Recover the amino acids of this structure.
């Protein structure tokens, strides 16, 4: 399969779509025009300096308001700009034409992950960088694309027009895949459109191209383009997983999990999603991330605790995990936080308790 690794190139990449090819051709046309202008201008300049140098006895001419010269240096640049503007406008219009897509994907940026939702199905998921911190910090061996690996890549079919609806949950991000010639800002409260039509199967990598926070460099994009038949098989599998998860969720809502099971699951969820900010010992970082150990909310306000995990807290780094974690995982991590590090509230949060806060019932 083709990949988007072009680390040895210094020129703009040609990409794998017709649009990216147009962008590349436009780039080379503009570059050629600029080179030609530079050769002519500097050629005339150096020739004049050599031909009319003082050592040859050249005498400087004195003239001004030459109508022919003024017309020439006005008309010629105007014609050059028109020649450049026509193909540029054609390419820009084609890039913005997201009409009549065969597949639409909602792309939502969050600090520091992407959420993908296929608009014609129930399939949706978060895509998070898969590389461990220990690898980034050179404690463990890492691969070539260690900053461009995710746990769940976006999958699209080849040969079909795919429209991206791009927005954000928090700050401004930018969804960028160089091989598609797609780079579009994800603005909170707005939806921007982009599209692609990939010609060949492969793995294509990109990243957030907007300075969106301290972990901006750890927000990669990975897209896998599959043949239509392989994509259909993949989508069928994902829809089956979603259906099974919903059935499991309904089963959990009708049962009570033991405290031991919740604590065991909650510890794993906490270490994977919460410990980076609130620390493994629950003491947080003073002045940056609040402590959970001894927290008044954790010890006393069960509903507020569930709500902040579900919906996050605006204006802070506390993210909303309602779409990212299952009811079981949220119930487990809240149970763990309310009973770990000496909190010992004895509270046992069930999936149905989380669902009640989520639905307001």
């Amino acid at each position: 399969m083709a990949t988007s690794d072009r680390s040895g190139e210094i020129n703009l990449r040609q990409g794998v779509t017709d649009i990216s090819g147009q962008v590349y051709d436009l780039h080379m046309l503009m570059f050629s025009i600029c080179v030609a202008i530079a050769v002519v201008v500097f050629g005339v300049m150096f020739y004049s300096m050599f031909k009319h140098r003082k050592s040859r006895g050249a005498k400087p001419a004195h003239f001004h308001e030459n109508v022919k010269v003024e017309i020439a240096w006005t008309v010629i640049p105007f014609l050059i700009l028109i020649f450049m503007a026509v193909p540029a406008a054609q390419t820009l219009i084609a890039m913005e034409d997201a009409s009549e897509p065969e597949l639409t994907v909602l792309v939502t940026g969050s600090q520091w992950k992407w959420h993908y939702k296929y608009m014609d199905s129930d399939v949706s998921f978060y895509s998070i960088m898969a590389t461990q911190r220990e690898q980034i910090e050179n404690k463990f061996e890492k691969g070539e694309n260690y900053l461009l690996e995710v746990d769940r890549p976006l999958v699209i079919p080849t040969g079909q027009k795919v429209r991206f609806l791009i927005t954000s949950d928090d700050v401004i991000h930018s969804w960028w895949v160089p091989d598609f010639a797609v780079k579009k800002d994800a603005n909170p409260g707005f939806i921007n459109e982009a599209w692609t039509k990939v010609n060949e199967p492969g793995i294509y990598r990109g990243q957030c191209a907007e300075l969106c926070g301290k972990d901006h460099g750890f927000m990669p994009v990975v897209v896998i383009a599959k043949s239509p038949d392989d994509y259909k098989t993949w989508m069928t599998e994902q829809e089956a997983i979603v259906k099974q998860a919903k059935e499991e969720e309904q089963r959990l809502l009708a049962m009570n999990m033991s405290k031991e099971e919740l604590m065991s699951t909650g510890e794993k969820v906490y270490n994977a999603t919460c410990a980076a900010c609130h620390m493994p010992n629950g003491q947080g970082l003073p002045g940056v991330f609040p402590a959970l150990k001894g927290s008044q909310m954790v010890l006393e306000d069960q509903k507020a605790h569930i709500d902040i995990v579900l919906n996050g807290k605006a204006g802070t780094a506390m993210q909303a995990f309602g779409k990212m974690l299952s009811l079981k995982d949220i119930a487990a991590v809240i149970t763990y936080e309310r009973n770990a590090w000496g909190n010992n509230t004895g509270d046992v949060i069930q999936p149905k308790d989380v669902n009640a806060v989520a639905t307001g019932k």
